[in-house]
Amino acid sequence: MMTLAESMVGDHPARPVLVASNDPEAGGLKKAAALGIPTAAVDHRPYGKDRVAFEAEFLKPILAAAPDILCLAGFMRVLTPGFVERFEGRMLNIHPSLLPKYPGLQTHQRALDAGDAEAGCTVHEVTPVLDDGPILGQARVTIEPGDTAETLAARVLRQEHRLYPAVLRRFASGDRTPVLLD
To answer: What is the span of the domain harbouring residue 55?
Structure first.
């Protein structure tokens, strides 16, 4: 999130209008506020399994901020189809695998367990199907001998910080051509 926010300066075609979280204690909220970006937090826990009720409340500050694009970064809640469809074609997510390989969780360990030669990250449009939207960019990372899920995750994260801002800049300019990084 911070990498995205810090990239949106100068001639960048987008500006951050809100950082929202489902965790009122998320460190990114304080960091965003320090940059002068409005923040909002709606704790999902009081809603239990009622995702629709949580999303209705979460939607309020988002709609008030009137974003053109929503960028998910570290948002670990599965959104309902109704929420996703509201922002169809305008919501991006970054995922720590080379989709379509390894949607969901434990991506680095799954790549290691499979004996893959490379891993990486993907920025994609969010659709109602988890980690399945059109791919807007990918960055590859070689899996090295002796890698653990943690060492691989650290190298993939460095690529995420390169890829997501590049994809957002292109996407905000109206260009959906995938960004490919090595």
So the answer is: 18-66
Residues 25 and 61 in one domain: yes
Q: List, by residue number, the catalytic residues.
A: 95
Domain count, the chain: 2
Domain boundary among 41, 66, 91: 66
Mean pLDDT to the nearest integer, 124-145: 97
Q: How far is CA 138 from CA 50, 116, 124, 179, in A?
A: 33, 16, 9, 6
Q: How many CA within 13 A on the CB side of residue 21? A: 17
Pairing between strand 179-181 and 19-21?
A: unpaired
Is 91:125 a contact under the CB 8 Å cutoff?
yes
If asked whether residues 91 and 26 sit together in one domain, one would say no
In our burial notation (b when 16+ CB lie closer than 10 A, e otherwise), range 104-114 reads eeebbebbbee
Instruction: Compute the average pLDDT of residues 10-37.
Output: 97
Confidence of residue 74 (pLDDT cuts 50, 70, 90): confident
pTM: 0.95
CB 6, CB 20: distance < 8 Å: no
Whole-angstrom Cα distance, residue 29 to residue 14? 19
Q: Are strands 135-142 and 179-181 parallel, antiparallel or unpaired?
A: parallel
**Half-sphere exposure of residue 160, counting CA atoms within 13 Å on the CB side?**
22
